Structure formats: structure tokens, C-alpha cells
Amino acid sequence: MSTDSVAAPTAPVILVYAVRERAKAFARTAFPKRKAKTVVVKSRDEFNEAMRRELIDAVVIDVGGGGEEAWELLALGQDFPSAPFFALVQSRTTDGPAIARATQMGVADILTEGIDEDAARDLVGPFTYTTRFARALQEPPAALGLSSDIQKKTWAALIAHAGRPVTTKDLAQEIGITREHLSRNFALGNGPNLKRVIDLVRLISAAELSKNPGYDVRDVAAVLGFASSSHLAVTTQRIASTRPASLAGLRAVDLVERFLQGRTRSRVAGTGSL
């Protein structure tokens, strides 16, 4: 996925591992509530729980004061490649070895306490999962035939949620029209109806997250807000005629191809429920 900047309607979720007060203060300043949702944890158990509770856009690990546990958590970046990992270091001349170690571990970038507070959002933002997901799907697949102004605006609003739960009502509000108008005009002709397109985008995100070695099917269902792994299984079967366990091997283009094989319209078009 590209790392070019894309605006999202919802604030990114930043997971921060920090045991020092100064590191926690860095997180509060760098990611204010009006711009991001910051989840601060101070143990490995809390970290693992947070990673499986909601869709995490990026991870910041305070390697300047977390001891060996911080480095163990930083190494988990290999298990969760969908979420870029950043190392937070203190502004000290003795931090050279920590910076070198973090760089060798493949972090997205190094954040420096006392220096990068004001720049952190600009440094982290382009790498977040939501931003990269929206950039990768910026143009709706031509095969879907989404060419009208309403269809394109709706697609842009939809992919900016990166597979999180969203309703027809939500999308209508974001593009400035009524839900009835959106439902009536999105699926004109023989095009796919909006409810099915919402499911398709959620499934594309599920396939992307399934490629994380650290997630199983239950985890993917949970972080994307499916009611259960069974709900994800039903959606996978309805949209792609396969099982969730197969999603890791499928690309967005594969899912679109399967979707177009007679699965583009639900019985009641344009309903707001998922």
C-alpha cells in the first residue's frame, strides 16, 4: 500500500506502549483527542488485548523506558505488518544504540521525545492503516461500474472507514444527501447496491488484516466490528463464496471478481443495517 496522505472521516487509532510519565505526556501532546484516538497501555497483556479489541492504525513503543518488554513488543511488528510500528526514544546522546536497534528491527520511523511532539502526526499519519487502505482503493475498481458522481463520492467516503462498521445513513451524511436519495441513486441500472458494496469493502479489509500472522479469524472479526466470527463467515460466503480462513490468500481484485459473479445485489437494496 502507498503511504501518501489521505484524509479520513474518523480519527486514527494510535496504540502507545508507555510506562514513563514523560512518554505518556508525549502521546497526549502528539496525538490530541480532537485529532486521534490514543490508547495507552503499560504491559504486554494490555497491548495484546488492545490489538485485538479494535482496528489499530499505528503503534508507538517507548523503548526509552520500557526495558526489555518494550523491545519484545517492538518485535511484534513482524506479526502485525498492517499497523506500522514506531519507536519512541528520549532526547539523549546515549540513545544512539537504541535508535540503531530499532532501525534494524524495521520500524516505520523513530520519534524523539522533546522534539517530535508537534511533528508526530505528520510523521505517523501517512503510514496509518486507514490512510494506506484508502489510498490503495482510491479509484473504485472499473469492473464495479461506479461512475456517477454520487457513486464516486460514496465510494470515497466508504473506503475512508477502512472496513469499520458504517451504514447507509452514515455515508449519506458524509456526502451531504439524504439516505433515501443515496439508496435510490447508488444502484441505478444493474449496478451493485450499496449494502453489498459496503460488505465488499469490509471484506477487502478483512482479507488485508488476515495476512497478519498475529491475527486469527476471530481477531479479524473483532477488530472490524463484526458481531462474531460467524457473522464474518456469513459475509465472506455471501460476497466471495469462500470461508474466512481463505481470505489471507485473496487480493482485492480477487474479491471483486468473485463479488461480480452474481453477488452484487441483496434482496432489499440500500438498507442501512449491516
What does this structure look like?
It is elongated, with a radius of gyration of 20 Å. The model is unreliable at 1-8 and 268-274 (pLDDT under 50). With 274 residues, it is α/β, with parallel strands linked by helices. It is built from 13 helices and five strands. The protein has helices at residues 21-30, 44-51, 67-74, 96-104, 120-124, 129-136, 149-159, 168-175, 179-186, 194-210, 217-223, 229-240, 252-259; strands at 13-17, 37-41, 58-62, 85-89, 109-112. Helices cover 43% and strands 9% of the residues.
- The CATH class label of the largest domain is Mainly Alpha
Strand content: 5-15%
Share of helix among residues? 40-55%
Annotation, overall tally of beta strands:
5
What's the main sheet like? 5 strands, parallel
Task: Choose one word for the global shape.
Answer: elongated
CATH architecture of the largest domain: Orthogonal Bundle
| SSE run | EHEHEHEHEHHHHHHHHH
